[in-house]
């Protein structure tokens, strides 16, 4: 078999057919607690569109659209993805919990478990934090569980948008 890239209409048909056979069966939202760098925020908007997240909530010092870096990296997905800004992460988390979301931190924290061993609910909100400092103690305290990505090399963590992507796609294909 010779492989060749799909472009244009064949690509759109391929993805449309895949979505019909494999519909998203989980409600996923994400909270960004002071994710500082616009490039990470743009990447997360692109992920949110690709994975059909129900909502992104930007909090604290997280930059918001319109922002040229967010729009360039995110390929203008902030125009398609439902998002909002809430200054205090605690307010956003309380609202999402009230809406029935289980709050899951992606954080290297005491008590966190490897992401692939956790049983995710059909309605969950993933919470990620600042690139250098992670989630605050107050935000972690509101979360019902925490998962982490095992690190096998010298580094201690992955970029925030990469870690979120790994967990999101794991959930999409296991719940």
Structure description:
- The chain is α/β, with parallel strands linked by helices and 175 residues long.
- It has a single domain (25-172), classed as 3-Layer(aba) Sandwich (Alpha/beta knot).
- 35% of the residues lie in helices and 19% in strands.
- It has six helices and seven strands, in the order H-E-H-E-H-E-H-E-E-E-H-E-H.
- The protein has helices spanning 8-21, 38-50, 68-73, 89-98, 137-142, 160-172; strands spanning 27-33, 55-59, 83-86, 102-106, 113-114, 123-128, 145-148.
- It has a seven-stranded parallel beta sheet, sandwiched between helices.
- Helix 2 runs parallel beside helix 6.
- The chain is globular and about 50 Å long.
- The model has no long low-confidence stretch (mean pLDDT 97).
Provide a concise account of the structure shown.
The chain has 175 residues and is an alpha/beta fold. It is built from 6 helices and 7 strands.
SSE order and pairing:
Layout: H1 8-21, E1 27-33, H2 38-50, E2 55-59, H3 68-73, E3 83-86, H4 89-98, E4 102-106, E5 113-114, E6 123-128, H5 137-142, E7 145-148, H6 160-172
Parallel strand pairs: 1-2, 1-6, 2-3, 4-6, 4-7, 5-7
Helix pairs in contact: 2-6
